[in-house]
Amino acid sequence: SQQGEEDPQALSIQEGENATMNCSYKTSINNLQWYRQNSGRGLVHLILIRSNEREKHSGRLRVTLDTSKKSSSLLITASRAADTASYFCGTIASGSARQLTFGSGTQLTVLP
Amino acid sequence: DAGVTQSPTHLIKTRGQQVTLRCSPKSGHDTVSWYQQALGQGPQFIFQYYEEEERQRGNFPDRFSGHQFPNYSSELNVNALLLGDSALYLCASSPGTMNQPQHFGDGTRLSIL
Fold it and tell me: FRET partner for B85 with CA separation of 20 to 30 A, picked from A20, A112, B4, B78?
């Protein structure tokens, strides 16, 4: 079963615009992680946010976490064509031994 | 510093056959997890190995088994292959401490005919 669900399923924007993706999950978590996957490749880790954190930044990426709503968002600012990829949120449930549970992802297309 | 490496990159099998996939973790990582990713879906957790033992298992049948060696490398074995086993199989490694990201390999694309 899938713990997290990303929204929207697909997003198409122009280069330079901001992209926002959302993730909802069902159970208590230790942390939530965002990954990027280019076509035919493995997942690349972007940001890990712990359950006691509310916001984290890394370069053009900003992640928020609202544990009361069991939701997270990923904001990519000033998007580039190279940001075109699928984005997944994965959660580590409380008490889990590091099993990541993913949603179906958001397919982001950045048009030049 | 090599990241997670998986072999082979592609594999074609027929129904009923058996397959072994291999994974070498990132240097310094002692925990290996395996995921199955069907086309258009997110990765699904198969199992995780730590100290050569299966520590946690997802909702996969016993046809899926694994092993971890003393050097932390790992194998995933699938018996009696079904058409539905066609997928990208991803290996991820992580260090022993909590709240650390997992590092993924580029996967093995398994096609069942």
Answer: B4
